[in-house]
Amino acid sequence: MLTCNKERLDDKIKTFSKFGDTGKGGITRLSLSPAALEAREEFCKRCKALGMEIKTDDMANIYATIPGEEGLPAIMMGSHMDSVKQGGNYDGILGVLTGLEVAETIVTEKIEHKHPITVVVWTNEEGARFDPAMMSSGVITGKFDKDIMLASRDIDGITFKEALEASGYMGNIENRATAEKYKALVELHIEQGPVLEAEKKDIGIVEGVCGMVNYEFTFVGQADHAGTTPMKYRKDALFAASKVIQYLHDELDKLDSKLVYTTGRMNVSPNIHTIIPDNVKFTLDARHQDPEVVKQVVEIIKKVPGVVEKCEVSCKKLWARNTVKFYPEFVHYVEKNAKEYGYSSMKIYSGPGHDAQFITDIIPTTMIFVPSEKGHSHCEKEFTPLESCVKGTNVLLQTVLDIDKS
Ligand SMILES: [Zn+2]
């Protein structure tokens, strides 16, 4: 079977790890920052050397294409090059670099293909500098309002529009990915969780992206003196909140074992050690692939009483995402190819969000996961062994060639 080049892929990973290097094994490469622009420049330089044609759209998404037969839509691979603060060398960038390695293999080995083959770089996937995440894939698929996105500001007050214009990568709206121009998107990504490694699998056959809900609970009590108020007279909003967190854990643990849920944010007011808390807010993020389970989560949330420990309780939905299912034919190719290369694999749903989940609304899409060592991601410890990256690239290569023939 056809294979990509291990040394070349290693060189790509090592080269791009310099752009935004923190010196501690990771990178800080916020969207459209000087480090991100250096990475873009290197990417475009390498694509041009392969004879690829480079276009950018109005959100600075980059499309680098090997030509195919006239009039046929292109097959797209790729991901994002921006990172979170003190992030790792694999999240996003590995999807771009494996795409580039597939393109380089096709060009240098003169592998026949009918359709044009494109490597795409999505702008501002992380949302770490400009909120929200998956901004540009969201704009081109109509999820987000472009004008609102352009007004998004970083902590220095710079708007996304200003950063976009200064980047030199803002192109034409005509160049956006559309269903007419693209036949497929295959995004390779690290798993960002511990399952593939624990199950000793080389390849994650990604069937879709988990649905999720995110709720915020608010508890209103009475702020009083910690030294004078007898326990029986208190309205302690933090105590009420802790009771509800315990209730949620007890009830949610009765649902399917694949359900994951998190209270990641809590605000306690006034947050002074001598005052009984009178206002507490916390979030609950819950994710599962089956919409029915997500519905059961919401039913449990709705059963939280309006008054707990004499405190008023309210809750509101911050946001939600429906389960996304990827294109079955492409999912099948990934499964078949993993098997044909002799790699172990398993079907998996993505917990995190990816640009692919938005693009799938307009273009048939799937993803390939490779293992994350100890499940670490969004941190400097993020690591995927070169051998695993090579296996993922080979499956990506063959999947693109299968799509070309289909
Ligand atoms: Zn990512």
From TrEMBL:
<dbReference type="InterPro" id="IPR036264">
    <property type="entry name" value="Bact_exopeptidase_dim_dom"/>
</dbReference>
<keyword id="KW-0378">Hydrolase</keyword>
<feature type="domain" description="Peptidase M20 dimerisation">
    <location>
        <begin position="210"/>
        <end position="303"/>
    </location>
</feature>
<dbReference type="InterPro" id="IPR011650">
    <property type="entry name" value="Peptidase_M20_dimer"/>
</dbReference>
<dbReference type="InterPro" id="IPR010158">
    <property type="entry name" value="Amidase_Cbmase"/>
</dbReference>
<dbReference type="Pfam" id="PF07687">
    <property type="entry name" value="M20_dimer"/>
</dbReference>
<comment type="similarity">
    <text>Belongs to the peptidase M20 family.</text>
</comment>
<dbReference type="Pfam" id="PF01546">
    <property type="entry name" value="Peptidase_M20"/>
</dbReference>
<protein>
    <submittedName>
        <fullName>Zn-dependent hydrolase</fullName>
    </submittedName>
</protein>
<dbReference type="GO" id="GO:0016787">
    <property type="term" value="F:hydrolase activity"/>
</dbReference>
<dbReference type="InterPro" id="IPR002933">
    <property type="entry name" value="Peptidase_M20"/>
</dbReference>
